Amino acid sequence: MKKQTLRRLLAAAMVAAMAMGMAGCSNSGETASGGDTGSAASTADNGGDASGGDSASQEPVTLTVWNTEVQTPGVQDNPVANAIKEKVGVVMDIVQGDAQKFSVLMAGGDLPGIIYSNSAQQGVDYSTLVSSKQLMAMDDLIEEYGENIKKNFPERVEYSKKFLSNGEDKVYFLPVLCYAKDEENPDISYTIENVGLMVRWDIYKAIGCPEIETTDDFLNVLKEMQDYANENDLAEGKTVYAISGWSDWGLWPWWLANVREMGYLDLANGAIVNRETLEVDVNYNTEAFWDSLKFYNKAYNMGLLDPEAFTMKNDQFWEKCQNGQVLMAHASWQTD
């Protein structure tokens, strides 16, 4: 494969990676996609620069993308994916599975071309991924094609080099939630996604917006909301539960949002930080973690917890949310 052709193809991969979050390259770095190498090379040869040139006349490059948070696997057909296809000439083919499948793919050297990395779901942390030698350092690509990254997200690049490269000082990942603190406005959050306990406003408003000061108050409000939703058949014949969950993200649904509400920050692999004391500890050693479990135990005893919460997969949880069967979200992206 010609060097310039590879650069163009990898630039297209990088743009798609920015859309998905964190990026990596599989197949020993020989190709930027999971598709046929020859086809990818001819695509880059037959048109403008893949990093921003005219892609309308090119045959699109298909990149396989590991992302368990997308509702529908396979080739994506939505406004964002279609815009990427039109502007960049890249088609995203989403690959999904559990931690076991990811481990099998990694062991066989068959990782998808782009990885939306979430160690809690994959059971594999950044260090193991870097050590596998299946990720491609993106420093040269960012230098040549990533002017917007250098201009708008320098903190993410430096963070990635310092903390996500096994001491190599290279960019293997593009973090999605990594921001510089605004010293003049320290309480402002610049994240577009927030984790926390959120309820359906329409039903909360319908029951009179009761005051909430404690977790017990919150559970009692959820009970009123659940009763209202079922009495008024808001899920059209389906049973509504205030709280549900899913099993394929480990313990994520059962503690992370709750400890955020208690003033903690979460780190990788179950560690949390007390924002007041800056002490770091494993979640199992903190009162916040066990208070979270007590919260869900109370919810279960009050009949608020979906009995399928411990056996469902995330996509089944999403389906119930879309059917109006769940009243509490654990994060802002679940409120769409």
Question: Which range does the strand content fall in?
Answer: 5-15%
Task: Please count the beta strands (DSSP E, at least 2 residues each).
Answer: 9
User: What is the topology, as strand order, of the major beta sheet?
Assistant: 2-3-1-4
| Whole-angstrom Rg | 22 Å
Distance between the termini: 43 Å
**Mean of residue pLDDT?**
80
Q: Which of globular, elongated, flat, extended, rod-shaped describes the shape?
A: globular
Detail the poorly predicted runs. Answer: 1-11, 16-56
- Fraction in helix: 40-55%
- The helix/strand order is HHEEHEHEHHHHHEHHHEEEHHE
Largest sheet, in brief, is:
4 strands, mixed
Number of domains: 2
Explained architecture:
With 336 residues, the chain is α/β, with parallel strands linked by helices. It folds into two domains: 3-163, no CATH class; 195-335, Periplasmic binding protein-like II (D-Maltodextrin-Binding Protein, domain 2, 3-Layer(aba) Sandwich), CATH 3.40.190.10. The chain contains 14 helices and nine strands. It has helices at 3-20, 37-45, 79-88, 99-107, 119-122, 126-131, 139-145, 147-152, 154-163, 201-206, 215-231, 252-261, 287-301, 314-322, and strands at 61-66, 74-75, 90-95, 114-115, 195-199, 264-266, 271-274, 280-282, 328-331. The strands form three sheets. Strands 2-3-1-4 form a four-stranded mixed sheet. A three-stranded antiparallel sheet has the order 6-7-8. It is globular, with a radius of gyration of 22 Å.
